[in-house]
Structure formats: C-alpha cells, structure tokens
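Researcher: I'd like a structural prediction for the single chain below. Treat it as a standalone chain; there are no partners to consider.
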Amino acid sequence: MSDKKLNNMCSLSIVKSDIIFHNKLSEMPISQLKTEITDDIPNSYSLVILDIDNVLNHIHEGHIYRNFEMDDKMIELIEFIKRGNKLIPPIIRNIVNDSWTIFDGQHRVALFCELKITSIPFLIRLDQIKYVNQLK
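Model: Treating it as a single chain, here is the predicted structure.
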C-alpha cells in the first residue's frame, strides 16, 4: 500500500452514525451509480433491511467482501460519506435458487463489514422478493 493510501486510511475514519442511506426509491440518484441500471428503480425494486452476514453467506465468494482493502474507490466512498452524502443501498439479485450476487455496491458492503455494521438496507427487485426469506 502506498504511503498516500495509508495516510488517507488513517485520516478518513468513519463511524456507523456517519452513514446515511436514501430511503425513498423515487429520490435515489440512480444515474450516479457506477453500474448501468436499466430498470425503473422506483417501480421495480423494494428496500429490504437484511443482515449482511446472511446475505454474504448466499453470495458466491461472499468471503471476499469480509477482506477489507483500501483502494482508490474505497477512499472515494469514505470521502463521500464524510461529506454527509446519502448512500444508495447495495443492489442484490437472485441468480438461481439461493444464489445471490451483489449487482452494485461491493465497496459499500465491504466497508460495512469492516465497520462491523450488521444490517443495512438492500435494493431487491420486486419479482425476487419471494426469495428474500432465505437471507433473513
């Protein structure tokens, strides 16, 4: 890790109370996401509070999100949070049966794991809500 990244990591500490999520689908700035989303978020998704560990237990290679790494994207995310910006909840999708994927929000999930945050809101497609009980 470069000295610059190490210095940034030390100076960009955040706590759970710094994290604010958007809670209204219609107000989420979806165009700001790094992943191209073609779905109509307000009409096709629901916000569901889930335990991060349970979600990661159903994601192929979910363990990688528990191995926190400070990179440029993580520094950018921490700076975004420190400025008081609201976060869009991570988007997860059901692939097959009990296999899920984090479609958008990998850095957010890794950061929350590092901060020992146990549950957060996730965006889940309405047609996949029927599978959400396996994540609770």
